[in-house]
């Protein structure tokens, strides 16, 4: 089946490679990975904020007071963005990370989970990574081992489950969350591959998953059934999130590139939005 919303709206086509979209107060915050910049995009496509991030921006999320927490892939750090727009390092993850720092999600209480890829997708050979947990008070520690390139992450509304795309294993996995942030692998939700990337959850309990090498965004039920698809029109599906006052819009991030071009930093990034079949839920 193919979900065909009408109309599909182009927000911008001026990005490079849009990852980790996060909606807050009318702005879509995006890690434009291969432009080495954190950007906030208005609904008319204008770039409202831009911060150069030499360590290459990765996952992000908002802690309860509205501070943005940002992971950086290459220098393996966590940064915060103040209300004045200043980026400040708050944690060095180098001693815990075996690959690159990747996606990130922040819970309602401010606890974050951060993916460690285990290797560099562009240059290395596949090996399992980790998921770290972090709070500003406690600092970082390992929450789960043996995760195959942890990518998109979403927390269930009650905070008891963390849903993670394991990109190199072509699966979407569910972990139970302990009170201290430790994760226990629960089950495989779906194996729709190839290479699931970003992730978001709706009020029906279904997840939207972009298939980086599959040319489509898929919506998968809680019991693993394929519900809907959105074709990426020849582009590479990268990430997705919900936005709008009632989280009624599904924002789809994609890139006009190939893996070979991406290794050379050549890409053109797009953000579209469509009316979602069910509004967003959980975090982010």
From TrEMBL:
It comes from the Bacteria. Pfam families: SGL. Residues 17-255 form the SMP-30/Gluconolactonase/LRE-like region domain. InterPro entries: 6-blade_b-propeller_TolB-like, SGL, SMP-30. Belongs to the SMP-30/CGR1 family. This is SMP-30/gluconolactonase/LRE family protein.
């Amino acid at each position: 089946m193919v979900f065909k919303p009408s109309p599909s709206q182009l927000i911008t086509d001026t990005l490079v490679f849009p990852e980790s979209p996060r909606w807050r107060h009318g702005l879509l915050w995006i890690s434009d990975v291969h432009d080495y910049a954190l950007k906030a995009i208005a609904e008319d496509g204008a770039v409202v904020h831009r911060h150069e991030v030499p360590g290459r921006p990765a996952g992000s999320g908002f802690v309860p007071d509205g501070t943005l927490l940002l992971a950086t892939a290459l220098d393996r750090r966590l940064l915060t963005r103040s209300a004045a727009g200043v980026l400040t390092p708050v944690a060095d993850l180098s001693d815990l990370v075996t690959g690159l720092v990747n996606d990130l999600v922040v819970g309602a209480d401010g606890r974050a989970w951060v993916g460690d890829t285990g290797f560099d997708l562009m240059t290395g050979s596949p090996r399992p990574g980790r998921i770290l947990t972090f709070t500003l008070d406690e600092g970082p520690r390992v929450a789960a081992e043996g995760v195959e390139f942890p990518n998109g992450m979403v927390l269930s509304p009650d905070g008891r489950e963390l849903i993670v795309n394991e990109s190199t294993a072509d699966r979407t996995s569910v972990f139970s969350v302990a009170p201290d942030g430790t994760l226990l692998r629960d089950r495989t939700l779906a194996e729709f591959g190839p290479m699931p990337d970003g992730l978001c959850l709706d009020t029906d309990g279904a997840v939207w998953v972009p298939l980086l090498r599959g040319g489509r965004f898929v919506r998968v039920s809680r019991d693993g059934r394929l519900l809907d698809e959105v074709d990426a029109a020849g582009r590479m599906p990268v990430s997705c999130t919900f936005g709008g006052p009632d989280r009624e819009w599904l924002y789809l991030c994609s890139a006009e590139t190939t893996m070979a071009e991406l290794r050379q930093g050549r890409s053109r990034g797009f953000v579209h939005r469509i009316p979602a079949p069910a509004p967003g839920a959980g975090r982010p």
